Amino acid sequence: MEKGNIPGNKRPLKVLQIRTDVQGTVIERPNRFLAIVEILDNGMFKHEKVHVHDPGRLIDIIYPGNRVLLRKAENKKRKTTWDMIAGRFSGEWILINSSFHRQISTWIIDNGIIDYLSNADILLPEQKYGDSRLDYLLEKQGRKIWIEVKGCTLAEGNIASFPDAPTIRGKRHVEELIKAVSEGYEAAVIVLVFRPHSRCFKANEIIDPAFAQVFNRALEAGVKIFPVMFSFEKGNICYQKQIPLCNICK
Description:
The chain is α+β, with helices and mostly antiparallel strands and 250 residues long.
């Protein structure tokens, strides 16, 4: 893993390699965690049940006729034998599997991508605060920083936004961060943006106005927001750059 002054490197950096086993075509999505995908297996087309590890709507990625990348599940006792890894959008693959968010966000912190979160003394995942379990508690020079991670797979034009479905849980997490700041801690949100041509990021006030309202309150309260953009190229998650919030875009 490359370390050091990574943010100044102009080349996309490989963060994580993700194995995929087959391409398929979406037939339908019966519910948010299940899709039916047609794959070619030994010269025969088969319809397979595929687990969707993302609670979002993903309506511009998981729709009938679109191409997706799948990986064979290792647990043979599962009801679904495949996991959906990525979907095609505008000629590019977009990661749509949130099970990789922990590894990607840990890479961000460990490699000093975000100065504010770099050089941590202690990094503890999955720590309870209030009524929630937040993604990280980072300790740095005697300061405690609570961190939540969100994955962004939606963009309108070159504006990335979260969420792409109403999220009561996401709203509660941000409210906990506001509370943490009021109690003397520091707090941050890392937004993993998987739409590689995004210019900036904003909360999606159309799909979830309640979340957007809390998001804006968090900014006013001093919660730091860090959108970080990635691409999925030849089976690799690649770091591109940090992007600003849309209201401070020039």
